[in-house]
Every structure is written in structure tokens, then in C-alpha cells.
Amino acid sequence: MAILVTGGAGYIGSHTCVELLNAGYEIIVADNFSNSKLEVLDCIREITGRNFTFYKADLLDKEALNTIFEENEVKAVIHLAGLKEKFPEKSLWYYHQNLISTLILCEVMESHQVKTLVFSSSAAVYGLSEKVPIDEERLLGATSPYGQTKQMIEEILRDMYESDREWSFVFLRYFQAIGVHKSISIGQELYNLSNKLLSDIFQAEVGKTSELSISLGVDGVMANDYIHVVDVATGHVKALKGALRSKSLQVYNLGTGRGYCDLELVTTFEKVSGRKIPYKIISEYPGDNGVRCVDPTKAKLELGWAAERGMEEMCGDSWRWLVHLSNELKEK
């Protein structure tokens, strides 16, 4: 039996597939390439030395999903497919794509008696929080269309569990994944860089901007809980093991337990790259106040998971990936 990974060709999805295959799982990947490329699948095969089944499918296509379940023995699903936090002005699009696709997925899973789901949620469901680090018991209050769809999906799945305790759900909440696999063969494409600062650093690398603008937030308080994408991927594997062990609904934060300010990120990039990155300090961007970081204690105690990679490794891998993208552009 196999694990279906929706969005398995995406940034976090591809790294999760690598960790699943390395852990000995059989996988099936479903992706419509809205946030990814076909070549990523060959990179996953090359990294792991293993093959897997792939379907080009949109989760809004119920017939295509049914085909996947009819043609394969699916044991569980890791749900990573969905629109990313890049288009805040397209709220209706977010709701349609992220909510309806998840409803269709759950309907198909239920009809085939597959009731184990790891949902890749987001720490965006917490909204603005005055107290950090944020634990899993904190009241939810998403403030963006992206975060609200994640929160709504959690609520839908929670209602499903309350009405049918045969389901097993795990929700994973995390902030900003960065870094890439050590092979430097899979990562976020340039058009998909969701972090503005990373995008600005890339623009500086290719000479499209002369100076970065770094915000220290209101009163100098601004920090993000960055986490290496491989740590996020191993978190999904650990969560899957937990979901398969018992029928329950569990929520886990994935993070380092501390926030890193933009200036710390840039100076670490300078250290790992050996290059000076020109920047200026600005007072604040709108909405920049606060420290965003989660408490990962529960994941450590119950899943045996902990982030293993620090900021230097996150930045080092990210820098090598940005250089890789830059070289690809120059070749074109």
C-alpha cells in the first residue's frame, strides 16, 4: 500500500517525497504543476534512487481523484496541495481552490475507506499573537485569505472527526520554510519565491537591485520563525507515522522555537556567501510588528521530531540554490 502525496512536486511536497522514499514508503504523487515543474519528479527519483507512481491531476477534478484511488491501494494521504500566500487580492480564488479541492479529496477518500490524513496547515492560522512562542492551544485568528482557508479546512476536518472517529487526522502548523535539499536539485523556483526577503536577495545576486530594504519592525521588534524545508519534510513523515498508529486528531507546531529578524538573515547570508549584500534599514513595513514563532515542544515529546538545522545551514543551502537559479538564467 502507498501514501498519496498531493502537491508532491511542489517545494515542500518534493522534499517530503524524498524523506518518505528514504524512509521506505511507497508513494503516489498527484500534482497539477500550478506551483511546480515536471522535472522535479526526475530529481526526486535521482536523489532517492527509487521510482514512484505519478498522476497529473487537479484536486478539483473528482473523476481524476477517483481514478487514483481505484488504480492504487492508498493507505493514507499527505495533503500539501493548495495555493500559496502570494495573491492576497484574490481571496475568492483562494477559497475556491483550497477549500473545494480539500472537500473533494475527503469525499473521495471516504468513498474508498481511506481515513488517514496528514494536513499541511500553516501557523498563519494563529494570526497576530502578543505572546510567543505560540503553542497549539492558542486561539486561532487568521488574518489573510491564505490563513483563513487553512483555518477553515482545519475546522472542517475537526467536524469530520467528531462525526466519525474512524478518521485519523494530523494538522501541521509552521511559518516560513527556507533552504533546499543538500543535492541542490530541488527547491523553490524564482517565480515561486514566497518570501520577499529571499526574493530581494536573489534580485541583488543577479544585479537587478542595488540595495535591500530591511525592516526592523515597530520599536525594532520583528522576527520570523524560519525553518529548514528538510526539517518540515521530516515532520510530515513523523506525523504520518503518528497518524497511522492511532485514530485521533492531533495538532503539532513545527519550528525552531525562536524568531530571526531580517537583519540576522541578511548577515548570515553574507557570512555563508562571503559576499557583501548592500542594504538599508527602514523603520517598518505595514503590519510588520511582532515576533512570529511557534513552540515545537509537543512535536518533540509525542512525535520525536525536532528541527535539526540552524540558520547558517538554512541560509547556506538557500544561497547555493539562488546561485543555481542565477546560473540557469545566465545560461538561457
From TrEMBL:
Record's protein name: UDP-glucose 4-epimerase
Family: Belongs to the NAD(P)-dependent epimerase/dehydratase family.
The entry's keywords: Carbohydrate metabolism, Galactose metabolism, Isomerase, NAD
One MF annotation (Gene Ontology) recorded for this entry: UDP-glucose 4-epimerase activity
Record pathway: Carbohydrate metabolism; galactose metabolism
Top-level taxon of the source organism: Bacteria
GO terms for biological process, alphabetical: galactose metabolic process
InterPro entries according to UniProt: Epimerase_deHydtase, NAD(P)-bd_dom_sf, UDP_G4E
Gene3D superfamilies, sorted: NAD(P)-binding Rossmann-like Domain, UDP-galactose 4-epimerase, domain 1
Domain NAD-dependent epimerase/dehydratase as annotated: residue spans: 3-255
Record keyword Manganese present: no
Cofactor(s) listed in the protein's UniProt record: NAD(+)
One Pfam assignment: Epimerase
Gene: galE
Reactions catalysed: UDP-alpha-D-glucose = UDP-alpha-D-galactose
Enzyme Commission code(s) on record: 5.1.3.2
GO cellular component: cytosol
